[in-house]
Fold this protein.
Amino acid sequence: MMLAGTIRFWMNGWITQQYVTPKFYFTYMGFDWVHPLGNTGMHVVFALIALSTVLIAAGLFYRLAAILFFVAFTYVELIDVTNYLNHYYFISLVSFLLIWLPANRYFSLDVRIWPNLKRTHIPLWVIGVIRLQIGVVYIFAGLAKLNPDWMLQAQPMKIWLPAKSHLPVIGSLMYKEWVAYLFSWFGAFYDVFIAFFLINRKTRPVAYVFVLGFHIATAIVFPGIGMFPYVMIISSFAFFSSGYHQKLLNRFQKSNLCNGVKIYNYAPILQPVLAICIGIYFLIQFIVPVRFLFYPGHLFWYEEGYRFSWRVMLMEKSGNTFFTVKEPSTGKTYEVENREFLTPLQDKMMSTQPDMILRYAHYLADVYAKRGLKKPAVYAQCFVALNGERSRPYVNTAVNLAAQPLSWQHYNWVLPFTNHEK
Amino acid sequence: MMIINRLRAGIFLGIAAFAIGFVACSKSDNSTTKPNPAENGFDKAAMLTNYADNLIIPAYTSLQTQLGVLEIAANSFLAAPTFANKQALKIVFKDTYLKFEHVSVDQFGPAEAALFTNFTNTFPTDSIAIEGNITRGTYSFNANSAVGQQGFPALDYLLFSPNHLNDFSGANAVNRKKYVQDVIARLKTLTGTVLTGWQNTYRASFITNTRSDSGSPIAFLINQFAFEMDQLKGPRIGWPFGKQSADILFPNNTEGFNAGISVALATENLISLKAMFNGNGSGKGMSDYLIALKKDKLSSDVLTQFDKAINGLKAVPDPYATSMSLHKTEIEAAYREIQILLTLIKTDVASATGVRITYQDTDGD
């Protein structure tokens, strides 16, 4: 599964485009030390990811491969905020969990080589951890949709659907408002409740039909979201009972593997430690998506607490930013050509996200200081359009961004969102 | 187990019935009501057909014709390189360059494949490389590194830069004359390649692809509108005026510098861009698509802003190089209007049509 994703990435030449071409990378706060490795280096990393996926699937050197995959994949994601996608984050988290879970003890090459590793049964909570993780993703994605724009205005569906009127049969429906509302409401209820229906054994098959239907529909209507629907379709398999998986495995292998029941157990001393670790992990998983509550102002506008919160396909936001660098002592001003430093994708992402604007402003201050300016001041003129509203000024043009600190504090230099005029 | 199976079957049936009803509804809708652009959808295929047949292909055709006129005028100048003939040639050259401004925005499909704009209009031109080519008498225009040695900017330099008139007389002029002819021939070849590309295959795929995701005609058009506005703000007007360089002027870097026609070219570029935006007033343009998306106000705001920016440019007299010192206020005013128009296209129009301003085909969520 992930192998296909890696190959797709490679074939599209995205490695070079996203990790080699840019001159400047928007790093994550606290991860400034993460740097790309150059052309060959990045391709080696992607080759390692591909290799580790093969190993995990085959169950060979399982734990080592899981660690390798997690480290390499997360490393790639940490290089540049521009490329952040919720499902990449999801994959990183699941691969992190997989490191600790004994997923190689039954149907794997490891067991073939070291038969004494073999276990036929694992404690239920091990699967529970994965299920809970998927549940967290769905529920938060659903809760995030319960906002006025989504539910009452059917935004951004009203924008996205007419752009899909080329589709056969349903194409002509795409301009109708009730279709936008149907998509919005169905999407929200699906996300909030699907995890519960998957957990319940009685509703599970039906729920899975919905999983298939929902994600295949989104894959058709929004091909732009790439691998996400397939990732969710496959990972939702974790909700199925062991009996079902056993049947599936038996199709591949006729000989009966389960002679003698062996239960996998972690060492008794480790158990409380594990319980605490898992508890902390999920506490973090819960706190991170709700952290936006601690920031003032409109979430979609400021995007403080937006990332890592399972806010999937939630808004339509476009921006355009001009930067000017000024030397205070002489009054000389220089307009910046963003294309000189950023790829078009970076430029687009930066223009709507305050933390990226600030990072770029600091970078510009450094660049122009090297070009001989004394204490360069950086000003931005930025306009942003959100969910079909008209564009408005986004950044206070009088604020020297070079002097603003990067932090998790509220950004005062972002102008408030005013909701009026259509 | 039986109960669950029945339940399952029941729900399956329910979903199936719902789906059938859904499709049936949509069909009856289509048959009973007359298509109304604002309600039942906008005919994107008709819009794209309008772009292909009434704007893009005719623009290349008339550029191709005009290049033939330029070729004849250039040959008669090269036969008798007098000042009077040079002035006569300048008029034809300007007409041809103005025609080019109508295809400048169409850098996708066959034009993108041929790197049309790069090879026809990379300015400032590389005069040192050009002189080297002429002296050696051997050169190739096909390499990507040769973009600065050909096209309209090269002609502008060869034919109209001061003090070069005498170089066309005497024994050493043979190579120079041939170089001018080769540059014109290359322009004709490139235009011909793009034009046949449109006529043979691209037109059909262009008018039938009504998607809006990256790589689709609608996304190309919006991206190119934004790109041309960037070019106007940057290399055509802003950069030579010192916007990037703390007011240090670069008059030589303007488009059509030697012929002294920079503002005329920029104005024509913007006028043609407006015609592209409103589909030449045919009711089948991007501005009409916005109205179908219930963005009437935005559509008319953009058209008004086009006029403001065009009038702003018209207030600046050619040659731009002199105006940079004499008409700073007018240039600043035009620049502001251009910047507002750029923002409208890049954010509001892009957002309303669900098009991303990026040349990369990426995932999003």
